[in-house]
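Quick note —
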Amino acid sequence: MIHLTEKKKITIMIAIMVAMFFSAINQTIIGVAMPRIIAKLGGMDYYTWAITIYLLTTTVATILVGKLSDIYGRKPFILAGIGLFTIGAFLSGLSTDIFQLIAYRSITGFGAGVIMSTAFTAIGDLYLPRERARWTGLMSGIFGISSVLGPLVGGYVVDHLDWHWVFWIFLPLGIIAFIMIAVLFPKVPRREGETIDYLGSFFLTVTIVALLLAFSLAGEGPGKYAWTSWEILGLFGLTIIGLAAFIVTESKVKSPVLPLSLFKNDIVTMSNMAGFLLGAGMMGVMIYAPFFIQGVKGISPSGSGYIMMPMSIVMVLATAFAGQLMTKTGKYKGLAIAGLLTTAIGIYLLHFITIDTPIYLLIMYLCIVGIGLGASMPVFSLTVQNAVPLKQLGVASASSQLFRSLGSTIGIGILGTIMSSRMTSRLTEMYAGQSAGQSQLPPEQAKQFGELMNPQVLLDQPKLEQIQKQLPAELLPYAEKMIASVREVFSDALTSTFFASAIIMLAAVVIALFLRAVPLVSEKDHHHQLQKSEKPSGA
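Predicted structure written out below.
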């Protein structure tokens, strides 16, 4: 595919970008709407599972499809990914409780993993690394554009329409993406001499699922287990066994699903480590910033979308700049370090926000995060692709997506535990001070006060206002005081996650310092190498 005409390449890239936009917009539209959806469906304690299960199935799909697409080509897999994503999104809109939503999100996540893995690898099929940087930046910009539009549309939908439409409004785009890929994307013959590594795929899946379940189930609250419980220790034990079996299998099979030789390349290893930490650290902002805006500041989902929008805009601009800079210079290390450090600073500043922080200051901090993420996100998949031969492009790209997805899922588990632990300890203190006065109220009013002490009610402003209207006038000052106390507890818990995210991002900066810098190969370099190799040895 690298020898196709430029016009044909651009046509294929347009089809890929439509597919990516369909996947991305269906994710970003949900971010701002999710707090309200959880408030409607109930189950705030299981909120992170709606995100975790998506990331878990995305991770498994990404790595399994990477090697298969190297053998069979990208086209059948990206079509299957679009189909699965569409089905999962449609079913998610039919959910009647949090557990159905979690189940349907797992289907959506598997489809997203297939789309992401094949789409980014397809860029490598079409372009050499230096030209690839421009398109990688544009593809990352697709996420940025969806991050601008998604929160705005998602906020509008939950404020003015039924929440189910959050999952359905962009489904026609999936049909368009499917048709474009089916018509425009070239089909390639199966690579001969390659076999499918079923055993390695099984052990890798066991390792990933057990590891992510351990981090997702550990913590406090319903459906959670203590870190030292036999359930969590058993999952970690299964992870170790699965990993050992996987390593033994991969060292013996002819066509391993994830060649261990990849990790002998220090650029691949360091890039994937940095990508892992980037995925973990950014979750603190992507998930919990809307919670702070809606739950602590008391702003509607639509307003939350407007507040998050500037961060998304500067992320798009920074991503485009990063792609152009890498294409022009062929260098990436300084950009990676600067981007990660800027992100760490922005997240650290978010640690200091309170209920009284002005909105303009919150937006300023989020924009700093956006600049850093935009500059650093395109780098690490590109460095991995630049460091491997063309025949390993799919599996190398999949490894990059794998480590970022692992980081995101494990990051959610760790950050969720930090938030829950902090909130539980603070709420326990508050309950002790409120229980005596609450016991003297009539049962109905005592129940209403009990609802006000649940942070989940802060995410559903209409319900909060309804409870306040039903209380006698003489109790309103006490109710307002209680709501203010719960907001303070929620704020403290959320900013604790920002602090932890900043530490994770600083660790990514340290890793990036040790990343070996190798110039990105351009098409000009490639032609020069071909000409040299074609010269007679005596010339």
